């Protein structure tokens, strides 16, 4: 049986695009990593998670200029399409090799929409890994100091041998619609006026994604939803989430109840209203519309667009 108002994502979310070979088999091959370092590329990410952008691509320098061998604080991101290894390191930024090339300093939120697939995956992965290392210097088992391991994809306690791996917290994000021409958008209490998006929340222990959708919607806006349907997912390395997208059916006649204090207001919007808001741009636009929507880097934007323009 087809869910009323069912739709699919029109495009792969920006941060879910694949343009890099992760090359998991190389993470424990120290000889291969050393051999590849001479020709490897290096992505520098500063303390504010900013990178250097030139011509819509992230600027990559030569790893050999940073050190003679793989640095203990560098993380291996994978292999480029041409086979070269690429690493990332927390470091001050350096300009492109071409002194005449124009460049700018941006973070992933600002530059995600202009990146090609390779740059998008490189920066998303590097941001997630480096943020994890910054906060995981001690063992989750007993608090012992740890060191980077597996080319940055783990941390190990040198005494016990216990390994910790990069943590990623799953969260659901859901567009609630009536099966026809209306959808719910909500504004968090910490957001400025007119900025609306989808209902989202972290998955609790022992909970499925679908159960989480039902619980979060009920807690945040008081609606009972059904026909919870998966759409797609996207990493969100701010600092370490995985956003799992859904749509679900709700009843426009049911009253909103804001019981957990996270949502300031919610409303049902028609497709025409949402399309007009999409045409105005995103949260950063100068529009005076009643409704402003998330930027293109967020899976929320892709879900909203896919519903608004569904056939």
UniProtKB/TrEMBL annotation:
UniProt-recorded Gene Ontology molecular function terms: metal ion binding; NADH pyrophosphatase activity
Keyword annotations: Hydrolase, Magnesium, Manganese, Metal-binding, NAD
Cofactor: Zn(2+); Mg(2+)
Any GO BP: NAD+ catabolic process
Reaction it catalyzes: a 5'-end NAD(+)-phospho-ribonucleoside in mRNA + H2O = a 5'-end phospho-adenosine-phospho-ribonucleoside in mRNA + beta-nicotinamide D-ribonucleotide + 2 H(+)
GO cellular component, one term: cytosol
Major enzyme class: hydrolase
Nudix hydrolase domain location: 166-291
Domain of life: Bacteria
Pfam families referenced in this protein's UniProt entry, alphabetically: NUDIX, NUDIX-like
EC identifiers of the protein: 3.6.1.22
Entry keyword Methyltransferase: no
InterPro entries associated with the record: NAD-cap_RNA_hydrolase_NudC, NADH_PPase-like_N, NudC-like_C, NUDIX_hydrolase-like_dom_sf, NUDIX_hydrolase_CS, NUDIX_hydrolase_dom
NCBIfam families assigned: PRK00241.1 (NF001299)
UniProt record similarity statement: Belongs to the Nudix hydrolase family. NudC subfamily.
Name this polypeptide is given: NAD(+) diphosphatase
Organism: Mycolicibacterium madagascariense
Gene responsible for this protein: nudC
């Amino acid at each position: 049986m087809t869910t009323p108002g069912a739709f699919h994502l029109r495009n792969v979310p920006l941060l879910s695009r694949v343009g890099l070979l992760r090359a998991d088999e190389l993470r424990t091959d120290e000889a291969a990593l050393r051999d590849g370092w001479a020709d490897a590329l290096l992505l520098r990410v500063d303390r504010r998670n900013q990178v250097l952008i030139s011509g819509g691509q992230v600027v990559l320098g030569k790893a050999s200029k940073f050190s003679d061998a793989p640095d203990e604080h560098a993380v291996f991101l994978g292999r480029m399409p041409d086979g070269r290894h690429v690493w990332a390191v927390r470091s001050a930024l350096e300009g492109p090799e071409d002194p005449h090339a124009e460049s700018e300093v941006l973070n992933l939120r600002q530059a995600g929409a202009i990146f090609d697939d390779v740059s998008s995956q490189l920066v998303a992965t590097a941001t997630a890994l480096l943020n994890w290392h910054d906060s995981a210097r001690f063992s989750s088992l007993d608090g012992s100091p740890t060191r980077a391991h597996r080319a940055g994809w783990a941390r190990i306690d040198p005494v016990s041998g216990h390994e910790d791996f990069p943590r990623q917290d799953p969260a659901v994000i859901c567009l609630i619609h009536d099966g026809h021409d209306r959808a719910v958008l909500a504004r968090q209490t910490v957001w400025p006026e007119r900025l609306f998006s989808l209902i989202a929340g972290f998955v609790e222990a022992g909970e499925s994604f679908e159960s989480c959708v039902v619980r979060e919607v009920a807690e945040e806006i008081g609606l009972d939803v059904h026909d919870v349907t998966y759409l797609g997912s996207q990493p969100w390395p701010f600092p370490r989430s995985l956003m799992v997208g859904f749509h679900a059916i709700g009843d426009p006649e049911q009253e909103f109840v804001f019981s957990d204090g996270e949502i300031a207001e919610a409303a049902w919007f028609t497709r025409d209203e949402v399309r007009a808001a999409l045409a105005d741009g995103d949260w950063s636009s100068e529009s005076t519309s009643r409704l402003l929507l998330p930027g293109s880097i967020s899976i929320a934007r892709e879900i909203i667009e896919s519903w608004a323009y569904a056939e």
